[in-house]
């Protein structure tokens, strides 16, 4: 309508003014991207796992060999020389002093590694230093063995594959001295010896007595590999490596990497403003428009997808039209080759643009889908919940407990007959069965300006809101409520897909040879509280009212009266006279939830007389066809509010299916039943018995209302009205 906001926006709508988000993004793009990259550079190392934790290196293997030889020596399995040889080989292979001096020529030496051993000792969590000294006393190396090993290593030359290099005399002394340096860090007690505990000219410029004298990233621990967790916590042999050369090289690389990234960012930042407008700002502004529209009118989200598709089709049509006009003009001047070239460039250019916009286009379409799902999931009853939560900008929290609102409406309760039996027989296919029926129920209710609300398996809650309508509009809506129920019954029994269930062996066995898919309806007019029912964990947008219970009770009563559509007097009195005349008054009852007795009306239909229609079609149900179907649906739905459409004549009197369903209910039958009911109401039950006996079998089958009234008069009253009979009884359930 004219008061509704447009749902489709062209790109020209955004050219009027730049949004605040656009101005801010252009100004801060460079700064924020640089900060983001710098943060990534600082944070990424935290998530990098070194292969040294999974791959055993020479240091790890060597530590295991040394520790095994030490334990074998302590157990008397091996002699001391084997342990001392493995310890010296370990330290000389990872020679700290040769590693800092460099290799001669093309030889390999410890300098090729960026970390070297400098501390050895024993560590334990619960051990005291006195207990650790029991291990260090035996682990100390002999002076003469160290000197002899160093002399042998000093003889290595370039012919060796790996030149270990010798130790300074001071380092030899420390290697053979007592392991008495106590270090406490990381929850461990350490007792051992450091090669760097004192300064050495031209070698050690910074004394490292304990490993924690170095920063954590400048050292790492090597321990024997084959230890259980309990053995490791109790005590173990530990080597510490000096990783300062590695840290220096890593720092140099990081500085060069940072400089390169800064250079790239400086160059790239010059293009950010241009790209931001084309790739980000315009799509974001379109998203904001759509979110604002959903916030103002959540139900309008259902039309967004159609309008978006319509806009895309218009753009494609314009592009094809322009291409054809250009081709005709160029061919007129014998420039067809130029036309083909331009078409190729335009095609390739448009595809690249689509690729550039792909992520934002997906996000934009996702917003439309989420809005449509919200409208589908909550419906009219939940529109206020969505709107209230989207209006609040103080937090991102969701408050589903929005106070309800009172609405005046026509309430319908629809139920699938024999649903429990169908569930037992169909098992997993019962979902398809229910959805096939729901497609008919929801589609026709929406077409006649109703709102499907709650689906509970076999039952559908249907609402036609009367608020804000004139009396004439309310009358038309009441007619549409009754007509939609009649049309649902007609479509259900004429539908070829649902008719196939009549031949299902399981259903035939349980329900008989004449089984078919059937529904029953209860209609009542009254007030209801519209809002959310549930908790912060799960909510349902629904309607609460005694009138809802009355509508459900009316549907239950259809089984007693053996009818398909049962309506209360409040609903029928709102209908037009043309429709009300077609409703049959069958009883007046007291019903829980109503302060006054309710007159019950039935809209008579015999669904067994509806033929099955075959709407077979080879039409492909594509996105385009769905769009056309929805557009046609909206046009037909809108026309029902206009004077062009007479609800009763067009959809009942002129309907072939409805005429077939009502053919048996002649004027003679209705007048005879009405006479019988009037005598029943006035207490003349013997006269009523004679008349209702006639109508009971007049249709060729038992008339449900006649049978129900006869059964009530017979038991326990034997067709004698009670002394205080006022024509009202309790609802039979």
Summary?
The chain has 733 residues and is of the alpha+beta class. The chain contains 27 helices and 14 strands. The strands form 2 sheets. Strands 6, 7, 8, 9, 10, 11, 12, 13 and 14 form a 9-stranded mixed sheet that branches. The chain has a 5-stranded antiparallel sheet with strand order 2-3-1-5-4.
What does this structure look like?
This is Cya protein. Keywords: Membrane, Transmembrane, Transmembrane helix. It comes from Symbiodinium pilosum. It is a single chain. With about 725 residues, the protein is an alpha+beta fold. Among the domains are: about 55-240, no CATH class; about 410-620, 2-Layer Sandwich (Alpha-Beta Plaits), CATH 3.30.70.1230; about 665-733, no CATH class. Helix content is about 55%, strand content about 15%. It has 27 helices and 14 strands. The strands form two sheets. Strands 6, 7, 8, 9, 10, 11, 12, 13 and 14 form a nine-stranded mixed beta sheet that branches. The protein has a five-stranded antiparallel beta sheet with strand order 2-3-1-5-4.
List strands and helices in order, with pairings.
Layout: H1 20-43, H2 58-75, H3 80-93, H4 96-99, E1 116-124, H5 129-139, H6 143-154, H7 169-176, E2 181-185, E3 188-194, E4 219-222, H8 229-234, E5 236-242, H9 244-296, H10 301-332, H11 336-356, H12 358-378, H13 383-391, E6 405-416, H14 419-426, H15 430-447, E7 451-456, E8 459-465, H16 471-494, H17 496-499, H18 505-511, E9 519-534, E10 539-544, H19 546-561, E11 565-568, H20 569-572, H21 577-580, E12 583-590, E13 598-603, H22 623-639, H23 647-653, H24 656-661, H25 667-682, H26 685-696, H27 704-714, E14 729-730
Parallel strand pairs: 9-11, 12-14
Antiparallel strand pairs: 1-3, 1-5, 2-3, 4-5, 6-8, 6-9, 7-8, 9-10, 11-13, 12-13
Helix pairs in contact: 1-9, 2-3, 3-6, 6-7, 9-12, 10-11, 10-12, 14-18, 15-16, 16-23, 25-26, 26-27
């Amino acid at each position: 309508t004219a008061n509704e906001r447009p749902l489709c926006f062209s790109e020209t709508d955004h050219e009027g003014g730049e949004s605040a988000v656009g101005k801010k993004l252009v100004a801060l793009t460079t700064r924020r991207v640089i900060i983001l990259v710098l943060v990534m550079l600082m944070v990424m190392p935290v998530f990098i796992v070194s292969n040294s934790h999974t791959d055993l290196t020479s240091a790890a293997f060597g530590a295991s060999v040394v520790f095994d030889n030490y334990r074998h020596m302590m157990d008397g399995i091996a002699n001391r020389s084997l342990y001392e040889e493995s310890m010296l080989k370990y330290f000389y292979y990872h020679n700290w002093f040769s590693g800092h001096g460099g290799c001669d020529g093309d030889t390999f030496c410890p300098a090729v590694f960026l970390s070297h051993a400098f501390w050895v000792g024993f560590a334990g969590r619960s051990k005291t230093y006195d207990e650790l000294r029991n291990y260090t006393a035996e682990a100390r190396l002999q002076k003469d063995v160290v000197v002899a090993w160093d002399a042998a290593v000093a003889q290595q030359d370039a012919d060796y594959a790996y030149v270990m290099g010798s130790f300074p005399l001071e380092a030899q002394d420390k290697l053979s001295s007592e392991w008495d340096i106590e270090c406490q860090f990381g929850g461990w007690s350490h007792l051992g010896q450091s090669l760097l505990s004192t300064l050495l000219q031209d070698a050690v410029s910074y004394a490292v007595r304990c490993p924690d004298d170095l920063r954590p990233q400048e050292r790492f621990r090597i321990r024997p590999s084959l230890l259980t967790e309990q053995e490791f916590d109790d005590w173990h042999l530990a080597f510490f490596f000096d990783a300062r050369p590695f840290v220096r090289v890593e720092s140099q690389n990081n500085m060069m990497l940072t400089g390169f990234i800064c250079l790239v960012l400086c160059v790239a930042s010059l293009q950010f403003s241009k790209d931001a407008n084309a790739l980000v700002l315009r799509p974001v502004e379109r998203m904001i428009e759509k979110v604002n529209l959903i916030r103002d009118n959540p139900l309008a989200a259902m039309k967004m997808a159609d309008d978006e598709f319509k806009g895309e089709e218009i753009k494609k049509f314009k592009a094809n039209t322009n291409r054809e006009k250009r081709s005709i003009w160029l061919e007129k001047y014998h420039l067809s080759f130029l036309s083909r070239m331009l078409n190729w460039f335009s095609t390739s250019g448009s595809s690249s643009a689509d690729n550039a916009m792909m992520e934002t286009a997906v996000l934009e379409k996702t917003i439309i889908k989420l809005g449509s799902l919200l409208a589908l999931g909550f419906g009219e009853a939940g529109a206020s919940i969505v709107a209230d939560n989207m209006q609040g900008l103080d937090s991102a929290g969701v408050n589903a407990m929005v106070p309800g609102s009172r609405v005046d409406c026509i309430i319908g309760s629809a139920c699938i007959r024999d649903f429990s039996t169908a569930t037992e027989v169909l098992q997993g296919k019962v979902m398809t069965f229910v959805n096939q029926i729901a497609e008919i129920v929801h589609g026709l209710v929406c077409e006649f300006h109703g709102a499907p609300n709650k689906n509970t398996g076999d039952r559908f809650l249907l609402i036609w809101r009367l608020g804000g309508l004139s009396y004439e509009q309310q009358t038309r809506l009441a007619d549409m409520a009754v007509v939609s129920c009649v049309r649902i019954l007609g479509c259900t029994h004429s539908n070829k897909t649902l008719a196939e269930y009549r031949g299902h062996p399981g259903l035939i066995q349980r329900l008989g040879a004449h089984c078919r898919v059937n529904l029953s309806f209860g209609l009542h007019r009254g007030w209801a509280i519209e809002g959310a029912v549930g908790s912060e964990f799960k909510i349902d947008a629904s309607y609460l009212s005694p009138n809802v219970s009355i509508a459900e009770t009316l549907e239950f009563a259809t089984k007693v009266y053996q009818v398909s559509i049962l309506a209360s007097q409040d609903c029928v009195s709102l209908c037009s006279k043309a429709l009300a005349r077609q409703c049959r008054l069958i009883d007046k009852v007291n019903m829980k939830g109503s302060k006054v007795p309710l007159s019950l009306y039935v809209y008579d239909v015999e669904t067994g007389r509806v033929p099955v229609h075959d709407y077979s079609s080879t039409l492909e149900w594509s996105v385009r066809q769905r769009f056309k179907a929805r557009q046609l649906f909206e046009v037909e739905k809108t026309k029902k509010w206009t004077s062009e459409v007479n609800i009763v004549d067009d959809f009942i009197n002129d309907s072939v299916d409805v005429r077939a369903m009502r053919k048996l209910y002649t004027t003679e039958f209705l007048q005879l039943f009405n006479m019988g009911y009037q005598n029943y109401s006035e207490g003349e039950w013997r006269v009523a018995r004679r008349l209702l006996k006639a109508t009971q079998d007049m249709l060729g089958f038992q008339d449900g209302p006649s049978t129900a009234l006869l059964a009530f008069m017979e038991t326990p009253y034997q067709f004698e009205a009670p002394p205080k009979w006022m024509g009202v009884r309790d609802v039979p359930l």
